[in-house]
Every structure is written in C-alpha cells, then in structure tokens.
Amino acid sequence: MSERLLEVRDLRVSFATRQGTVRAVRGVSFHVGAGEILGFVGESGSGKSVSVLSCMGLLARNGRIDGGSILFEGKELSPVFLTTREQQQQRENELRRLRGGRIGMIFQDPMTYINPVLTIGTQLTEGMRAHKPLSRKEARARAVELMRLVEIPDPERRMRQYPYEFSGGMRQRILIAAALSCDPKLLIADEPTTALDVTVQAQILDLIRRRAREAGTAVILITHDLGVVASLCDRIAILYGGKIAETGTTDDIFYRAKHPYTRGLLLSVAARRADSAGAGGYLPSISGSPPDLLRINSGCPFAARCDSAMKICRDYMPVRRTFGKGHSASCWLYCRDSAAEIAAVQDRKRGDARV
Amino acid sequence: MTRVSEPLLRVENLSKSFPVDNGWLRKKSVLQAVSGVSLTIGRGETFGLVGESGCGKSTLGRTILKVYEPDGGRIVFDGTDITGLKPQAMRPYRAKMQMVFQDPYASLNPRFTVGELITEPMRVHHLCPPGEQNERALALLDTVGLKRDHLNRYPHEFSGGQRQRIGIARALALNPEFIVCDEPISALDVSIQAQIVNLLMRIQREGNLSYLFIAHDLNMVRFLSHRIGVMYMGSIMETGEADAVCDQPMHPYTQALISAVPQMDPETARKQRRIPLKGEAPSPMHLPAGCPFAPRCPRADGICREEKPCLKPVSGRLVACHHP
After folding, report:
1. ipTM, 2 dp
2. A271 has a chain B CB within 8 A of its CB
C-alpha cells in the first residue's frame, strides 16, 4: 500500500444551530495515499463533505471539530490538541499555506467559485503567485500551459476573457486548472461533475484520473453518484448518518457489499437496467428517508430503514468488523456474537456521560 | 408491459423560439429552442426524452402543454387539435394534461397547506364539489404514500421526497390522462429516487396514464420508458424502443452520449470505451445550417453541413442522420 498522505482518525464535527447541536460527523476514519483515488459516497446530510472539508479548516462559522486526529504529511492539523490562541493562529496559517498549494480543491458549481468580474488569466495566476515565487510573466506562461492541459482551445486569447464567456464544462476545467496550478499532493473534488452533462462529466473524470495516474496526486472524490465512483475510484467509503457504514476497494463495495445500506443502494441503481428489475417491474428501493441529525439516537443510524434490523440495532451502535484487507462494515449482522460485551461497554460510556 | 396502439398525443413538426435581447441599440436575436419535433405517445405509454442541458427538452415538454405558445406545428391531444385553442376552450384539456416539476422546493407555495395545495386545482377547474374536495385530497394522500394527518401541514415540514409526493398528488388531483414529468427525480437523494419512480409507475398502471418523462439520467429513463427520444440542439436525433436505442445506438450523437454514461459496474466501467466529442455544443442562437451535430460529428461531410437530415426509419427506429 502506498504511503498515507492524509490520515484521519475518529473525526467528530458538530454544528450549533438554533434547533440544537447537529452532530454531522460522528467518528469517521480514513486515509489516502499518493496516486490513489478515494471515493466518499453518501446522500445529502450523510456527512461526506463535512468529513473532508473540515480537515482543511473549511467549516461554517457555527461548526467545530470536537475530536479526532488529522495527519497530513505526518503533521497534525486537528485543533483539538491545541490549547493556546497562538497555537490556533499557527494552525490557521499552516492551513492557509496548504489550501491552494499542496492541497487543491474543486467544488460543485463552478460559477460560485469563480469571480465574475476578473479575467480567467488573473484568477488562474492568483494562486500561483501567492504560493510560489513566480514572476507575473512566469505565472502567465504556466497558466497557458495549464489551460492546454485541461484542453481549452486557444488559451492565450481565452486568458483575457471573463467567466461568462465560458461554458459550464469549461468553467469546471478552469477550476481544475486552478486547483492543479501549484502541483498539489492532494486534490479534493466535492461533487465536481454534478452540475455537468454526461459527455462533459466523462471529460472531467478523465482529467482527474490522468492526474492521479501520471502525477501521483492523491484524490478524494466526494459524490452521491455510484456510477462515477465505479469508473474512477480505487477505494470507496460509504457514509450514512455521519458515520462510515462500509469501506473497501471498489470491487469490495460493488461485488462483496456487506452493509444492508450499501446493498440497498446498489440494488436500487443497478436494477435500472430493465432486464434486472425486481418483481412486477418495480425498482428495489430503500423505504423511509435519511435520519434527522438533530434527533439521532444511540443506535445504528440506518436501523429505521433497514430490512434486517433487530432490536439491538435501535439501541446500540454496532462495531466495525473487517472482512479482508481494507474492507470493513459497521453492522450488527456481523458482530452479534459479541453483542453483550459491546452493549455493556456502550452502557458504561453513557453512564459516564450522564455523571 | 402492455402497449396500446391509438396514440393519445401526436406532436407534428413543433417549433418554439425565444427572442433574446442583446442590449440597448443592438439587434435582437432568436434562440431556436425546439425546431420541428414530431412524436407520438400512446395511452399508458411512457416516452422518455433525454438530452444534455440546453437541448430544449424542457421547452418541448412545456410547449406541448401550451405553457409556451408554439411558433409552428401541431399538437393533437386525444383526436383534437389543441394548437390554436383559445384559453377558454383549452381549459378542459389543461385538466387532462398535468406536470410534475423538478425542484420540489420551488414548485410548492410555502404559504399553502398540503390540503390547500392539493385542492387548488379542483377549485380552479370546479371538478369536484367543495364538500368532497377534502375527502378527495385525503384519498390522494393515500395514493402517493403520505399520511392523512399531513393534510394541514406546510411544505417546509417535509423532506424532498415527500414534497415530490405532494407535487404528484397535486398533478393527479384532476384525473389527468397525460403527465409531463420534467426531471422529477434529479433533485432527490439516490435512495429516494427509486421510491418516486416506483410511485410514478404504480400510478401509471392504475390509471393507464401516459407520461412524457424528461431526464438526463439515461439509466433511469431507459428503465421506465417504453420508447425514448434523444434530443440535441432542439431536434430529435434518434427515437425508438428504449432498449434498442440504448443497446445499439445508430446516431453518432446517441453513440457518444451512451458511451459517456458512467457504468454502475466496476468491471464494465474499466472496459468502457468512451467516444469523445470534439469541441463544444453550438450556441442555440447560431445553429448551423445543416445537421446541428455536424460540427462535432466524426462522420460529417458536405451534405451534413448543408441540409438538415429528417427522421428516417433505420432498423426499427427513426434516425435523423445522413450517414446512419
């Protein structure tokens, strides 16, 4: 296995809202190495974006990291170990150096992240000039090169144009060019193709794949689209209710899925091919809707919608079970044998919390 | 799946364009959104319309419902030409042709309760005596899988999937025969999409409804459509049986489109060979004279750039291409 570029352990993130505390991420661990593409899959509110973006210090004002460790190139980025204001300021500065430099980011809607009143050239060179000792001229030359890399025709002329003169797919390619401008070690792509058409989506995914294979960039791809991860990712983490339900290689997830949520999700999309539809030509579906994170209980977050749910699922959280190298799932179906001990531990913890 | 021969809806050579204001003192230009589209939809049939953003699929759906006044062509619904009908004469047809919208957060009035939302079409069309409207709304809630005590709640209290169910109940309130579903699932979570699709399919079977199902998710469109049409720059490029078109696309655009759809299976995905499209889609304000796909097409030659191809039968389907 490649060296771990980013390693996150037991990350916890919460948001203070008027209705109460939303615990959006509740103990998420993952890692990614050079040249590897890791897919984060989940529905809205599953915590997939917050898990990754909070590592980069990108949290809304009402959000905070409550616990966990975030190691990037061996350096701790988690604020939970910091006590003094000075240390916190230091961490902020460190993150600022990383973002746009060693960590590149691409977001869903290219128009909201591009400044409409600045030329593309200005915006492409801005990051490079901030992170690298380049002259204006050198930066422009590099920007032209980057635009060629993302296959934008006539880059010299295009540099002087404004975002409105570009199509949606081209804007997204510009964002990718900007994200790659400082040769990042890690590229975070948050739903990079959701706003795009399939033919454009295929181009963008090709670009990301080439970057990982050829330049050894580590990629974390956040998406809700299982088709995108199937064709692009090496490993996948399936998130549900702020926890990782299952994680493994792409083949583990698609061919040897263990968690009932993963299975249900795969069934409901795979059966879209008419020949594999369920009884009466209907799609197999998961009943109910995703959990309300304000009112989440102590059990498995998927219990209310799960066909295999048992009594214990509603009250106690299952522990992670490993099924092979790197493949694990958190489900009571696989840890029933030690149910009594697990429940006792959780009872004790809850008792402690109450005291 | 059963098939009924007599078409409920026949659209012939339908066109719709919009004037575009280029600013003060500049000439106005014309955006040709739909140009010469013909299609038929039978009773109980689902016609899936796919295409990329800006290809005119939503405009086509809305023009068929006469939300937009067509520029040319004919819309024949249940044997009656409704193209030129005055608003008053159109009223009974409006009740029979309904729409389900994409964004369930934008399509429901936040100040109406669910009951008011569902009974509003009944009040407008006087289709149901006021005393029976509530009873009918409750029955509709059952049909779409909501609880009866949801009647007095407001839209903000519901999740996206539930709101889409409210939108469907509202569309069903007038016992329509034809529903345009304009991207009804693309704003929903993956696990909820299957629920809504199953609901739409059950309602169709129970009421022998016809659907025009507009979406960009080819897998989903294939699953629930009997026939599909592939649109590009305002024209239908290929139309035929859903499985035939998806398995053996004939038009070069359909081939490129289908080759770009992400495969749900990692094995197949690794083997997938994408047919790259060169360049960008042309601007709908300056459509090429010949085939709209010609500038990006690997097979294009002289005739493609001069003459627009019309739909011709090729191995059991219709293809608009000079070199199928």
Report:
1. 0.81
2. yes
